[in-house]
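Two records follow; treat each independently.
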Amino acid sequence: MSGQLNMDDRYGRKKSPLRLIPYVIFALLIGWLFWSATHHSNPTVAVNLISFKEINEKSMGITFDITRNDPSQAIDCKLTAVDFDKYVVGEIVHRIPAGDKSLRVTTQIPTRVHSVSADVVRCYPAN
C-alpha cells in the first residue's frame, strides 16, 4: 500500500492557493451587498410627494412630507416644475430649517411658462 500514489500525485494535480480566489471574491461581494442594503435602507432624509397644483401661469404649488433622522439639521430640497413636454420650466432649492423630525411642507415653484407637474428631485442636509 505504501507504494501506491494518491490521485493528486498520479494525475499531477497540485493544490494551489489560487483556487481560493473565487471564494474570497464571493465573500467580499456578499459583505458589500449586506453593507449596501443596511446603509441605503435608512436614509438621512426621506421625502414623500403629496400633491402639486398649478397656481397660475407662472407658479406651481407643491406639498410634500419630509422625515429626517436629525431634527437639529436644516434640509435643502431641490424642487422642479415641468411642462407638458417634460422640460424643466421652474427649479428652486427650498431650505427647511431645523425643527421637527417629520413635517409637511407646502411651497411654490416660480415657472417661466405654464407647468403641468412638479417633483422633489432630492433632499439633503444643508451645509
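The next record belongs to a different protein.
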Amino acid sequence: MQDTILSIAGRSGLYKLLTRGTARIIVEALDESHRRFPASPRDRITSLNDVTMYSETDDVPLMDVFQNICNALDGKPSPLNHKTATPEELSDFMATALPDYDRDRVRQSDIKKLLQWYNVLIAAGYTAFSETKEADGEEA
C-alpha cells in the first residue's frame, strides 16, 4: 500500500498507482470519483512512503504518523475539518499524531494536509498504514 499511494503537485487529493508505462503512469483518484488519468514524469509525483515529518529527535515516516492517528481515533475519520479547524485544534491534533513534532518546522498548512490526507485514506478504506508494526506482530 505504501508505495502505491501518491501525491501529485498541483492536484488536490491522493492517488493510487495502477500501472507503469515507459513514459507515464496511470493513477486513480482515491476520492469517490475514482477518476483515472495518466501522469507524466514532468508532474511532481511523490509516494507517501517517501514523506517524513519533522520531530524533535528524528524525522518520522508519514505512514507511522498515520498509524498513530488511526490508533488514537480507532480507525475512524477525524472529526476536525481541515478547512475550518482553529490553530489550537490543529496543534492538539498534531500532538496526538506525533507528540514530539518540531513546532518550529511543522507549519499549520502541513498539519491541514496531514488531516486531509488521513481522512481521504480512511474514506478509501485504508486502516493499516505501518507495515513494519504488522510484521513485528506476526513474528511474535
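Discussion point: Residues 133-140 have pLDDT under 50 and may be disordered. How would you locate this feature using only the C-alpha cell line?
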